[in-house]
């Protein structure tokens, strides 16, 4: 019958010796002989190179056998209003939640736990934000994500920080971090740049019951982020609905002809009404413009016919005016020629020039005198010269 059992403990190991389920002592590196006759024995071996002592009832064991375990283990315990930053050899490796109990092996690495009271202060230091931010390796760990809320506020934006549903402060552009433990953290980003909203495809009846399809475009800017975000919730949807309603009201009170003749008055009316409404919520309407007024097919045909008739009437009027002016000029010329033989002769020569320009060959009788005097005559023979 074997009375002794030999146990070898490596340099990176420590072992707990239990007899009859009672803790006896810690076995250090080397060979140990354990007497079996003393009762049922059990040896638990731990790798201390992992630094963290992971055992289910570690807190109970350390409390009941503090003197025996003190040379080997260092316990850290956080209250319900504290968080911890775990450093190993000067490197931040983990975030400890409130109420955490963490025992570590001594003499393996230089372990430090920085304890932070978050009962009142919940803002992270700027250096910690860079270490625990979303871009860092540690910031992507499950413990950091569950304990810390990080946010980046871009330029021309403003962040609204709410803690437990209450607005606490406005965040200027930059990086921020907040402890989420024991509280609810919310951050809403508000864009302060000039933005546009498109109200497209609105089917609206005019005052004379003509169905139109209108596209509207507007630009706006948020002047008071607190009013816009807290009183309206989704202020972009509110702006869209407000412009939509103002457009319907403006179109419904005007006839088709009035809309087509003066779109600027429609834009000004919508902008004036919407600007007064949205100014109450810290939003400025900068511009409003109707982009397109689309008519139904049959109405297009009718309007084209009306425009065609109008243009034909204008063309006929211009033609008659020009004819009248030409007749008046011709009458004045005839009056001048009636009492001026020299002017009459000049007109005959002009007529002769035009005739000869159109004829390839002319047969002349009576010599040059016949050509000059008898070929073209603008007054009857025997008239006064």
UniProtKB/TrEMBL annotation:
- Looking at the record, the residues that make up the Band domain are 146-307
Q: What is its main location?
A: membrane
InterPro entries tied to this protein? Band-7_stomatin-like, Band_7, Band_7/SPFH_dom_sf
So where does this one cross the membrane? none
Per UniProt, subcellular location reads as: Membrane
Question: What Pfam families has UniProt attached to this entry?
Answer: Band_7
Indicate how the chain sits in the lipid bilayer.
Single-pass membrane protein
PANTHER family noted in UniProt: BAND 7 PROTEIN-RELATED, BLL5629 PROTEIN
Similarity remark = Belongs to the band 7/mec-2 family.
Name of the protein this chain belongs to: Slipin family protein
């Amino acid at each position: 019958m074997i009375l002794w059992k030999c146990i070898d403990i490596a340099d990176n190991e420590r072992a707990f010796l239990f007899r009859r389920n009672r803790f006896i002592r810690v076995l250090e590196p080397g060979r140990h002989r354990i007497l079996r006759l003393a009762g049922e024995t059990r040896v638990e071996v731990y790798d201390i190179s992992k630094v963290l002592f992971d055992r289910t009832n570690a807190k109970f064991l350390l409390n009941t056998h503090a003197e025996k375990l003190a040379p080997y283990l260092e316990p850290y315990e956080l209250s319900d209003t504290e968080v911890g930053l775990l450093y190993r050899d000067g490197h931040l490796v983990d975030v400890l939640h409130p109420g955490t109990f963490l025992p570590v092996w001594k003499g393996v690495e230089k372990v430090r736990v920085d304890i932070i009271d978050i009962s009142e202060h919940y803002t992270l230091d700027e250096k910690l934000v860079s270490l625990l931010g979303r871009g860092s390796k540690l910031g992507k760990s499950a413990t950091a994500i569950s304990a810390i809320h990080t946010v980046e506020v871009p330029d021309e934006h403003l962040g609204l920080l709410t803690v437990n549903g209450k607005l606490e402060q406005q965040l200027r552009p930059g990086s921020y971090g907040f402890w989420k433990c024991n509280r609810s953290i919310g951050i809403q980003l508000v864009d302060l740049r000039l933005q546009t909203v498109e109200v497209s495809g609105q089917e609206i009846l005019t005052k004379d019951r003509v169905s139109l399809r209108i596209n509207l475009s507007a630009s706006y800017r948020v002047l008071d982020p607190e009013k816009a975000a807290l009183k309206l919730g989704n202020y972009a949807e509110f702006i869209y609905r407000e412009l939509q309603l103002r457009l319907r009201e403006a179109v419904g009170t005007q006839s088709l002809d009035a809309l087509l003749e003066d779109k600027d008055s429609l834009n000004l009316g919508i902008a004036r009404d919407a600007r007064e409404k949205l100014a109450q919520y810290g939003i400025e309407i900068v511009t409003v413009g109707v982009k397109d007024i689309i008519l139904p097919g049959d109405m297009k045909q009718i309007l084209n016919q009306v425009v065609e008739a109008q243009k034909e009437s204008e063309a006929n009027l211009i033609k008659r005016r020009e004819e009248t002016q030409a007749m008046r000029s011709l009458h004045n010329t005839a009056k001048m020629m009636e009492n001026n033989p020299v002017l009459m002769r000049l007109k005959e020569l002009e007529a002769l020039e035009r005739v000869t320009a159109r004829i390839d060959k002319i047969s002349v009788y009576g010599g040059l005198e016949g050509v000059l005097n008898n070929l073209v005559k603008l007054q009857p023979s025997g008239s006064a010269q």
